[in-house]
């Protein structure tokens, strides 16, 4: 149990889109801070001027906001390393004045004809041991590092120097980051010690691997978080999934809200071995979270993905729309599936009478006259149901015995086909209940007339 106020940080380099790995690191830092009632701070490590771009910074901010991860320093001017040159310089000067670092004129590595003035840290050559919350004690022999270069000149500190100064100035108590940063830690501790800073706690979290256990990449579907958003994943499903990438609650439960995660998250349950990215599991969690949405949230999200015509129907015909919710909850994995359903014409017939191909109404070899008779009978049965009782159960009850007696296919297929105009659709009871008594009878009568001609 950590003592005093916890401060974590998320320091992305804005050199690319915000992807799964970044998001998982941000989430673990966020959960840890929130669990302990501490703070989490955001900072942009944009020292690589050539590769850092403001649109990447924006993409990272959008991804974080979408996941619902807030930061305790967002109302201040953002921390950007590129804007903190004077601060780094003053710490470099302090180290030089105290004799811990020195200026060293050397030939440039890449161009021996050129001289450079590097700042080097005097090495004590000792070994460094730090405690990692996930991996236990880790020891590095620093003798081989020699006198570490900490700046390329007094105004150009290397990345590790900036990190150490920033973590100190931000009051960071816990550094939670990817395992790929372990070897940086020894260098950063050497700099910290020279500056007289207190060492934060470290936790290096496992890499995320593809199903083939290679490092996760685009080809495993690890695209930008904003792509998941644009394809209609729910942020709560992503958060839930990301939390399980390297952490487990210690029992079988898997479906968590952000609030539950805050309550349960604990560094001691972070695993050492790589976390496998599993798209099917993410999809499964998305379905679970989608089922838990309120009707109005579910509809608002669905409507956002629909093409214009379906979108207007959804907005205008509330009765039909609400009746569609349970059907859509069954059929959608992500919200862009609603757009695909619409594009295949699988939503329109709920709102508009379909054009029915008369030659396809009959089931298999059933003669046309027989089909006509079935439709007439069905219409007569359905007419008897009161408008307010016109639900799946009573519709099914009304038709079932007749269908059993006459052959389910030859009775139910034509009803379903006439109601939807599609060879594939939900069962006829469901469609009839959604579109209502009036539209059901109108469509049946229209088909009876067409068949009779
Ligand atoms: N800017 C580094 C990265 O994006 C963060 C390193 C750290 O957390 O110390 O990987």
What can you tell me about this protein's structure?
It is a single chain. α7 crosses α9 (279-292), α15 (392-406) crosses α17 (428-452) and α16 crosses α17. The protein is elongated. The strands form five sheets. The chain has a three-stranded parallel sheet with strand order 1-2-3. Strands 4-5-8 form a three-stranded antiparallel sheet. It is built from 17 helices and twelve strands. By secondary structure, the protein is an alpha/beta fold. The termini are far apart. Bound molecules: glutamic acid. Glutamic acid (GLU) binds next to loops.
Q: Please bin the fraction of helical residues.
A: 40-55%
Supply Rg. 32 Å
Content of β-strand = 5-15%
Distance separating the two termini? 82 Å
List SSEs in N-to-C order: EHEHEHEEEEEHEHEEHHHEHHHHHHHHH
How many E strands?
12
What structural category characterises the helix and strand content? alpha/beta
**Model regions low in confidence, pLDDT < 50 over at least 5 residues:** none
Q: Give the count of helical stretches.
A: 17
What value does the average pLDDT take?
95
User: What is the global morphology?
Assistant: elongated
